Structure formats: C-alpha cells, structure tokens
Prior knowledge:
The chain contains three helices and four strands. The N and C termini lie far apart (34 Å). By secondary structure, it is an alpha+beta fold.
Amino acid sequence: MNINYRLASNSDWLNLTSFRNKYSEAEYQRDYDHFRQDFEDTPSKNLGVLFVATSKDKVVGYARAGKFQKELGSSIYGLLDEAPDGYYLKGILTAESVRGLGVGKKLTSLRHNWIIEHS
Length: 119
C-alpha cells in the first residue's frame, strides 16, 4: 500500500472530519471544537501542526502537535496551568486498514521533527 504523508491543508477539512467521525470515540462536540480550532489557527500562528497520511487520495490517518502557553490561555486536554509551556504531542488516529504498517510511527516521527525545528 502506498501511503503519502504531508501537512494538512484547508481542502482536507471535509475528509478529516468524515474520517474522525468514523474512527474516533472522543466526546464529539468538545473534541470537534478543539480540532477545528487547531486546524484553523495553529499553522498560521505557528502554534502547532496537523499531518495527514493518505492513500489513493483518501485520509488514512492524522496526527497533531500543539504549543501550550499559559499566557495565551492554552489548554492541553483540560490541564490549564498544570503543564509547563512548550510543544506537546496531541491526537493521533489511523484507519484500521493501515494499522501495523507503521503509519502511526511515521506520523509521530514527523511531529517530533516538527517540534524540534520549532522549539
């Protein structure tokens, strides 16, 4: 299976939300709001990143990383004021069809490298 990895773009939004609805068990509305904010705000403000894995133009995985800053009122999974400022790995999700193929490992590697470059 040929899998491509890249930064998410605005054109990915509908595919990502459809993918999340199918595979995610998160509390939908709260998680959707955080996800949408990350998707819209973090790349332009250099506060985080969202990578996607695709196969045949279909999303088969994604992973996020974000910057926590107390003075901006950031929250990492509700841990406001409890975590030190810095970049954190956030959500990762892969389709069942690609599990065991290293997709999650590659997405995590991309996030780690991005954090190193931006720290």
